[in-house]
Amino acid sequence: MIELKELTVTLGDKRVFDRYSAELPDKGIVIVSGESGIGKTTLLRVLCGLVKPENGMITGLSGRKISVVFQEPRLLEQLTALENVALVSDRTKAEFLLNALNMHDELHVKAASLSGGQKQRVSLARAFAFSNDVVLLDEPFTGLDEHNKQKAADLIRSARLAVVVTHDPADAALLNSNRKIQL
Questions:
Q1: How far is 6 from 122, CA to CA, in rounded Å?
Q2: Could you give the CA distance from residue 116 to residue 95 in angstroms, rounded to a whole number?
Q3: What does the pLDDT read at residue 50?
Q4: Strands of 161-165's sheet in order across
Q5: Rounded CA gap, 53 and 46, in Å?
Q6: Helical axes 116-129 vs 146-157, angle rounded to 10°
Q7: Residue of 146, 152, 147 lying closest to 122 (CA atoms)
Q8: Which DSSP state fits 115?
Q9: What is the DSSP-derived secondary structure letter of residue 118?
Q10: Would you say 29 and 175 are in contact if contact means Cβ atoms under 8 Å apart?
Q11: Distance CA 64, CA 58 (A)
């Protein structure tokens, strides 16, 4: 179990978390929802170590490999879809994951030429190509049509532990999670 104990996080002038505590399971899918600006993305940034809390502690993450899908794709624009995913894995696994996300025809297309939804699928494939214990996903269905949302949901459901931020209850329903955190 991953425990967040009494976390206090301030960004600029805003206190995002004030002695916030939560427990996350070791496996499954956890949906994080809440109003815009409430701290969903900050929670993911704390979990992956990009934001350090002023107070409190996190237990259960030590030694675990974490991969992240951010709200905006963070691809190397000069590399192809396949090359971006193969950065964290081998080409065979990269190609398998891209094909699973309906990217058959775009494997050798430079990231700079991909649409927003295609970039999102490359980001998803890269997160899953990395040998991880935990996947943190911030609005992973952004820019995806219904068919590709289903492909992405299938992949996300294969994770050992996925923590998914989403505003959309329909997107959350695609993941069939019984564990939700409302901020």
A1: 36
A2: 19
A3: 95
A4: 66-69, 134-138, 161-165, 28-33, 179-182
A5: 7
A6: 10
A7: 152
A8: -
A9: H
A10: yes
A11: 13
